[in-house]
Structure formats: C-alpha cells, structure tokens
Amino acid sequence: MRLRAPVDRPARMLWQIRSDGEQPRVSWRPTADWLHPDGTVLDAADVERGTYRFVGHARELGNPPQWRADAAPKLWRYNLHYHGFLYGLPFASAKALVQSYLAAAGPEHEPAEGWEPYPLSLRLANWVMLFFGRWRDATLADRTFSERLWLEIRRMATWLSSHVEVHLMANHLLENAAALALAGVCFDGERARVWRTQGLALLRAQLDEQILPDGGHYERSPMYHQRVVYLLIALANTGDPELRTLVAPRVGAALTWLAEMTHPDGEIAHFNDAATGIYPAPARLLAWAQAVGLAGPSAAGDRSTWRLLPDSGYLVARSARGHVVIMDVGEIGPAHQPGHAHADFLSLEISWAGRRFVVDGGNFEYESGERRDWARGVEAHSTVFVVGEQPLELWGAFRVGRRGHPIGVDARSLGDGAGWLTAAHTGYQHLPASPVPRRELQWDPLGVVRVLDRVDATAAVPCASQLRIDGEWSLHRDSSTRYVFQRGAERAYVLSSVPIEVGRCRHFPRFGETRPAHLLRCRFRSGERVEWVVCHAGAIERAEAWQGDRTQSPARDPQCASRS
Q1: Claim to verify: residue 374 and residue 463 sit in the same structural domain
Q2: How far is residue 377's CA from residue 390's CA, in Å, rounded to a whole number?
Q3: Rg (Cα) of the chain, in Å, rounded?
Q4: In this structure, is residue 157 part of a structural domain?
C-alpha cells in the first residue's frame, strides 16, 4: 500500500473520465426520506458563516470553505470530507458548497483525505442520498449542476471500486461496500450495474462476518454499531428488492442489540471506541427503521430483564425502575482488526433511576498521544487490574499486539430479573506470576449491584479494583468504606470491604470533551478479595444485608447450579 501510493493517484487514473454531456438516469424509489447521518446537526447559520464543528472542535473555514484544513486533526478533516453537514441545509446552499468543493477538491487537486476510500465512501453515499434522493427534482432541473455532479460521482465510484479497503477490513470495508451499492442502485446503466454488483458481493460477505449472531457488530463498539444500523436502514430504504432482502433480516437483531446497549438517558454505553453524539441516537434510528417499514425490537415494558449477549460479550441487566448495569465480558474485537479496542475487560457501567452513575473513560480523540493512550488503557475503566500493567499491548493510535481473552464466563438468571455472573480473562498471563483477574457480579433489580473482585496468581502481585463515578453526583463520606452520592433528588451508595481511596479524575463521554468524575479505588494483593456493593438509595437495606454475606452468592448455592 505504501509503495503504490506515490504513483497510484486519482488524477493519474481518472483523467480519461470526462464530461460528455450525459445526464444521470436515476432509477431508485426510496421508501422514506434520508435520516441525517450525524448525531450532532450543524447549525445552518454557522455553516453559512463558515464555522464547522466536528468531534467537539469548531474551526473557521470561511465561505466557501478552505477545504484542505491542513491544520486540523485527521479525524476532523475526515468529517469535513464526509459532507454530512449538507443534510441541515437547503438545496441552494448545499449545491453552492458542493460546487466550491468540486472546484477545489476534485481528483486533479488531490487533497490529503478527500480521496481516501473511507471519507470518499461516506461523501459518495451522502451525495446520492441527498441530490438524487431528497433533492432529486431540483438537481435534475439544473442540467449544468447535475451533469457536473454525475461526472464526479462516476470518478468517485470508479476510484473506490479499485481501492476498497481490504487491507483494513471491518467498518471501512463495510462503508466501501455500502457506498458502491447505494450508487449502483441509484442510477441506471452499465456503470451503475458494475458498482451495484461489486457492492452487493462485498455486502453479502461482510454482513455475514461482521454482524454477530446476537445482533452486535464484531468490533464491539456501540458507536460503530450505530453506524452499521444506519447503513442497514439506508440500504433497505433504496427500494431495491435484493438489497432489502439482504439487510432486512439483520435489522431487527441489530436494533435489539443497540437497545440493550443503550442507557435510560437514551445514549449508548461507552465501551471500546465509543462516544455520544457521533451518530444518530438509538431512538432516531428506530424511528427511521419504522418509517422504512423495518421491524424493530420489542419493548421490554415494565419488566426487569437479565441478558447475556454471548457473541459480542456483554451482560445487560435492566430494572423496571430505570436501573441498568452493563458489563464487558467478551473479546476485544475481531482478531485481525482490533483497532477500536480498549483494555476494558470486566469493566462495567451503571445507571440509577435513569441517570448515569458508574461511567467508562470514553474517548477524547483518535490522534496519538496521552489522552488516546489513557482512554484505551485499563485505568480508564471501572474494572479490576494488576497495578502498572496492561492486559493488552497497546501501541500507536489503533494497534494491539499481545492481547488476552475472556475465560470462565458463566451467567445465570435467578428469576424476576435478578441474576449472577462470573468471568475472568488471560490478559496478564505473560507476566511471571500469571495473574488472572476474576469478577463476580450479582444483580437485584431493586437497585443493587454486588461485585466481588480477586486476582489469582502464583506469587503476590499488587492489584486494584476501581469505579469511576460521574462527576454530576456529589460525594459525601460516611466512613472509609462507605460513601453517599447525591444528584438532585436521587441518592446512591457505594460500600466496600476495604478502605477506599477517593480522588478526582476525568472521563470523555464525547469526542473533544472532558468531564470530571470521582475515582474510587481499592488496593489489594493477589489472593485477596475486594467486595463492592453499589446501590440506589431505595435498596440500601438489601445492599447492607448482602454486604459481606457469602451465603448470598449463587456461587455458594448448590441449587443455583440447576438454573445455569
């Protein structure tokens, strides 16, 4: 790939594709309008003034924009070249911006990111969905503009067709496939049939591989799962019978998985590379799926539920009272592409009465550096770990070398929404003492999470167990092993079996955004055990009864084994 880059350039390959006066022949009939693909919609007035905000950072680019934006981080420039901001504009404004882009960023100008396959795929999809979907009549009525746009789409699809990202795979290759399929079904003619055929072939192979049997995307990121759901609905919305037949059976399971990984505040959990506000919220995706005529998840209603997502490796427990716990007990991602993985084995998130309580470190950026390294590392997560060591060999911004695997995952329903789980992982077995962290979790839908942590090893090693509490909750100390948290009218407790070290820390719920959090940490040695009991105020009596009582653990209950 690196050797071919200097000679394999868009201008060199695409010069022969010239305007011949041909007009696009649009053949699709979308079922519904196209949903804005971004979680945060840029204000049209800001865009008119030349202000663009992506991944938490605003920049002044002018009008027309300085499309290269060389000083911005790569992910920011990627977002600029996606052209998702066009959805919030009227046709005339969107057309003017695209015309300025064609003049400044076509293949003959070769901007650094605009012709990379990933941003090109998103821009190609957005252009066909908007200009030949939502604004079809207005686009075709402007013969000069539609002819120029059609020329650029031919160039983009031709370039993409020979540059699909088989070297990266995963969500990149899925985006390439979806863009080719969307362009292929949008237009009539031999060129479009070639794009459609290639896109469909890639989609058949990649959807079988990337969508797991439990409905989750194999990169185990709730954020990228949102994007995959968006693509599935978009492909069904084209009206192409073959595409709809391909994706429709997967949409229900994918939406159900997304619903499970959504907190009561309506936003996703933050395991692996995940952040709020990048893609449409789950409720918007569900509403769009329904508008397109696709089946969504069945509502849980007022039932409490306990569910293990066995293929993606997440435990989700929900209470009718608005309490939720989600725990990571799975692989970090596909073995051949773990670029979006974090060292979050056995990590958990908790919401009480609809408000987030125990949080994940999140993700600030994709640029290499201290914040990226910290967010991927084990200490950014609410988990148990060996002090000073990482269970994954993390390097670069998206690389993982040595990595561990989950072992001994056993989840049992105890009836009425209650449940028990135990899991461990092999992330530290490269160390001399071969430490194995283990976490046992017990859940009562009244609002109690009991966690028992230990590390088994052949020699003594220093260990720690920690919880990160959202900074919106104020902290009050009852004793060295008991803390009270208050947020508005809601109150919660954290009890522990050993003294708690309390400090201030940070978390990144959105790209480019840092929020304060409380860090609760218990230190211990391998072979010892740490117990946490985390509860909503309405279940404090149950929590106090559980604390320290090993007879309450299903691991000690022989009758529970029959309920495995």
Answers
A1: yes
A2: 7
A3: 25
A4: no
Contacts 24+ apart (CB under 8 A), 548-555: 548/497, 552/442, 552/450, 553/420, 553/440, 553/442, 553/452, 554/412, 554/414, 554/420, 554/442, 555/420, 555/422, 555/440
| 352 plus 287 within the same structural domain | no
What gap in Å lies between CA 80 and CA 53, rounded to an integer? 9
Structure tokens given for 406: 């989950």
* Cα end-to-end span (Å), the chain: 50
Please indicate, yes or no, whether the overall pTM of this predicted structure exceeds 0.85.
yes
What are φ and ψ of residue 518, in 5° steps?
A: -100, 135
Closest CA to 384 of 341, 420, 427, 355: 427
Neighbours of 242 (CB within 10 A): 12
pLDDT exceeds 90 at position 367 = yes
Q: Check whether residue 285 and residue 342 sit in a common domain.
A: no
Amino acid occupying residue 176: N
Coil, strand or helix at 343: coil
Phi and psi at residue 535, in whole multiples of 5°? -150, 155
Distance between CA atoms of residues 386 and 160, nearest Å: 45
Helix locations, 269-344, DSSP H: 282-291
Task: Look up the domain containing 182 and give its range.
Answer: 164-294
Judged by DSSP in three states, 228 sits in helix
Q: Which of 123, 150, 177 is the last residue of a domain?
A: 150
Measured CA to CA, the distance from residue 118 to residue 202 in angstroms comes to 15
Using one digit for the tens of pLDDT, what is the confidence trace for 499-551? 999 999 999 999 999 999 999 999 999 999 999 999 999 999 999 998 877 66
Pair (251, 356) in one structural domain: no
CATH number at residue 209: 1.50.10.100
Buried b / exposed e along 130-151 (16+ C-beta atoms within 10 A): bbbbbbbebbbebeebbebbbb
313-335 pLDDT tens trace: 999 999 999 999 999 999 999 99
Q: Residue 310, Cα to own-chain centre: how many angstroms? A: 18
Helix (H) or strand (E) holding 355: strand 355-358
* pLDDT tens sequence across 94-105: 999 999 999 987
Q: Are residues 276 and 376 in the same domain?
A: no
Q: Quote the tokens at residue 160.
A: 């993409």
- 335 within a domain of the structure (yes/no): yes
